[in-house]
Amino acid sequence: MPDASAGALLWWVSRIWPTLCRGGPLRVPFIPRFSFRRLPFRPFSSTARHVQCMCGSPSRPAGLGLSLLLFSLISAAPAGAQTVLIDTSPAGRRQVIDGFGTCLSGTEGLASWWQQLYFDDLQCSILRMDLTPKFKPPYNGVNGTYNSPWFHNNPPLPGPETNNVRTYTNAADYTRLYNGWRAPIAVMGTNINQNTNYFDFQQSMPRVAGALAKIGHARADHLGGFKLVGSLWSPAPWLKVASGNRCPDYAWPLPVGGTPWPFIWYDNFAGGRLDTSGTPRPEFDDGTGPTSALTQFARCTAAYLRGFQQIHQVRFYAISLQNELNFEEFYNSCTYPLSAGYLAALKTLRAELDRHPDLAPIKIMGPEDLLGGDAYGLWQYGGGSNTIHKNLQYLQNLGADPQASAALDFFCIHGYASDGVSAANATPGLWNWWANGWSASPAPGIPSNVKGFTAYGRKSWMTETSGENPAWLAPAGEFPGAGAWSLALRLHQALTTGRQSAWIYWQLTDGNATSASTLTSASERANAPKYAAAKHYFRFIRPGAVRVETAVSGSTNLLASAFVHDTNRTLTVVLLNTSPHSERATVRLPSEPGPLAGVQAFVSSDASYWQPVPAPVEGASVTVTLPGYSVLTLHAVTPPRLGFQLPDDGRLRLFWAPASLGFVLQSRASLTAGEWSNEAAPPEVVEGEASVVLALESAPRFFRLALP
Q1: For residues 519 and 468, what is the distance between their CA atoms, to the nearest angstrom?
Q2: Which of 238, 372, 450, 671 has its CA 20 to 30 A from that of 682?
Q3: pLDDT for 324
Q4: How far apart are CA 549 and CA 522, in angstroms?
């Protein structure tokens, strides 16, 4: 750790011994270091802001000496800058931030470099995974019982039905003879523990997700919290029925154009609808009689969640019962075109989870549809038999059903245009509609007076987006609305106009070069432009922070967002320069959450990512310069208080709070010479307080907290 890190309070604990200062802790303000001046030493008194402990011992000389070095901020701010005002008053406070993260794909997450990026550098506090159930034989596709001819190539393509995939229309049709096999159905009974035996939790996705979630839970105190969330891309295939739609003409070896949904390709449960009729079927006889697909869906999901949590020793924060519920794709997918079917599944699943104490705390989020590219994408497509409900109509119908409303804990949405690929149309106007709705009809056929999610008194998460060019500026010759810089811009829009409490990208990596779908790659790592853009928000805005209102005077080019963390006593400000020219900004530091110091600043611009820059403080202001099309993050702390105790066991206990700020305890033998070294003993964290217990030494030792 470089000595230039923001550290400050230096302790000289000399000739310490166990009989001194029994009882209460000593707390001393911790002031970050820039330039410093030595204060005159004064004896300590327990009744003043000092401590004096004098005592004798037959074996050691008397006395406890404790010297302090306090560091002050000395710098000047350039004049003529634009001003950023931050309102931390109750009136200026907006949504609480739950965290940032990505969805998991592939096995790179098991690599140490991947984990270092995710947990240490980005400090991601959310991990999203695919909850499509993974079955053991004979209920999976490994032995050819249900999968496509392309997968096992026996018989050769195009397969027994002159297609590359296995099609079916309902549970009975699923079990028909196909390629010499009758696919079995895993019927979930009344015993959830027995139901868990149907699943394989060591396949790639659950295995990697489980390993990473375990790391996240272990790092929760450091991260300020950790949340594992899951989305179902598809339920078990035998629970789906025909949608009435047909797939487009894909390239070989995908299905022949016009193939009806649903079908199985490779081991993907593609398209179709969940059977939400509630009709008992003989195929789902659990030993007590026929059950419905809805009952089987709820039991299957509950058993998968319990098995996953038990096998991997983790816990889910929230799940979504369907990812992008209006897309039929050749990969795992399922549709709920009308909200009535979704509400039926939601209520049934909630009731099943509530039956089990280990699953009842798991929240349900939804409906997890797209932001869309226009008002229709937020309300409804089509009419009559072609009606497809979208997010705001789902919310309206949820609000009219008390049981369904109680079953859904919070909302979530994807930051895509209507194609589910591009993020270009994730505009402030659409985010405003999602948050606040509209009073007048925005387009023909759409009703007026439609509520946004904020009217229902619940938070919203943006749980998936991607689509940006890997370059910082794209296109380079005009407004760069399609590259890494634009990712930061869309993050700003989602958090401010959209009032999102969490923001989750599609993938950190996918085993290939950085693309429209990923933030970085194994080769670029922290040097990827998109990674740097995300880091400006991910790194310092910890779970529990509150977004507060900002105002920028003197410019229309500068965008600002600010986040206060009352527990950690931090302020994080993210500035975006939407101009190709440099801009100067003076940020007025608010009085809350306390006296702010230790200001760090990092800027990213074209070909220069996450570079530390001076952030001089004069009075209560910080002035910085932003290059053209850049992002700059300011992070300031009200430093933690470092205290010590001398327990009866004759050791020294040093402690500080809050623990989640990332401060590291360091020491050295001399006040003026030698390298600072991290204390080997990791801190123990209890209820937000970090502590380290050390053996007493006869020689002097200086201690400090340093912020990496």
Answers
A1: 9
A2: 671
A3: 97
A4: 38
At 481, give phi and psi (nearest 5°): -90, 10
Between CA 499 and CA 299 the distance in angstroms is: 34
**229-238, 275-284, 682-691, range with the lowest pLDDT:** 682-691
CA angle 354, 357, 360 (to 5 degrees): 40
Contact predicate 437/455, CB 8 Å:
yes
Distance from C-alpha of 18 to C-alpha of 261, rounded to nearest angstrom: 75
Contact 584, 625 (CB under 8 A): yes
DSSP 404: H
Give the whole-angstrom CA distance, residue 685 versus residue 658.
9
Distance CA 588, CA 565 (A): 17
| Angle, CA 248 vertex, CA 378 and CA 391 arms, to 5° | 10
Contacts of 318 (CB under 8 A, 6+ apart): 227, 229, 230, 362, 363, 364, 365, 409, 410
Strands 82-87 and 546-553: antiparallel
Q: Determine the Cα–Cα distance for residues 226 and 19; give it in Å rounded to an integer.
A: 41
Residue 448 CB partners (closer than 8 Å, separation 6+): 438, 439, 440, 441
Contact, 500 vs 461, CB < 8 A?
yes
* Residues in contact with 388: Cβ distance below 8 Å, sequence separation at least 6, in sequence order: 326, 337, 338, 380, 381, 382
* 3 state SS for 527-547: HCHHHHHHHHHHCCCCCCCEE
For the cut 90, the answer to whether the pLDDT of residue 219 exceeds it is: yes
Q: Which residue has the tokens 């933690």?
A: 640
Cα(166)–Cα(51) distance, integer angstroms = 79
Nearest alpha carbon to residue 328 among 167, 199, 518: 167
Position 316 scores a pLDDT of 98
Higher pLDDT, 526 or 142: 526
Q: Which residue from 50, 49, 47, 57 is spatially nearest to 20, judged by alpha carbons? A: 57
Distance of CA 80 to the CA centre of its chain: 38
| Structural element, H or E, at residue 308 | helix 293-312
DSSP code at position 200 = -
Measured over all CA atoms, what is the biggest interatomic distance in the chain, rounded to whole angstroms? Answer: 96
- The answer to whether residues 18 and 696 touch, using CB atoms and an 8 Å cutoff, is yes
Strand pairing report for 502-507 and 460-464 = parallel
Q: Which two tokens stand for residue 406?
A: 């109680």
Neighbouring-strand partners of residue 99: 502
CA dist 354 and 192 (Å) reads 13
**Is residue 223 within 8 Å of residue 543, measured between CB atoms?**
yes
231-271 pLDDT per residue, tens: 999 999 999 999 999 999 887 778 888 999 999 988 899 99
Tens of pLDDT, residues 353-393? 999 999 999 999 999 999 998 999 999 999 998 999 999 99
What is the C-alpha separation between 366 and 324, in angstroms, rounded? 10
Q: What is the CB-side half-sphere exposure of residue 17 using CA atoms within 13 A?
A: 14
Burial of 180 by CB count in 10 Å (0-12 exposed, 13-18 middle, 19+ buried)? exposed
What type of residue is 670?
S
CA–CA separation, 185 and 297 (whole Å) = 13
Does residue 647 contact residue 653 with C-beta atoms inside 8 Å? yes
Is beta strand 363-370 parallel, antiparallel or unpaired with respect to 410-414?
Answer: parallel
Alpha helices in 370-520 (DSSP H): 391-399, 402-407, 428-436, 484-495
Instruction: Describe the strand order of the beta sheet including 268-270 as a list of residue ranges.
Output: 166-167, 263-265, 268-270
Report the DSSP pairing between strands 290-292 and 11-14.
unpaired
The domain limits of the chain are: 6-32+35-71+641-707
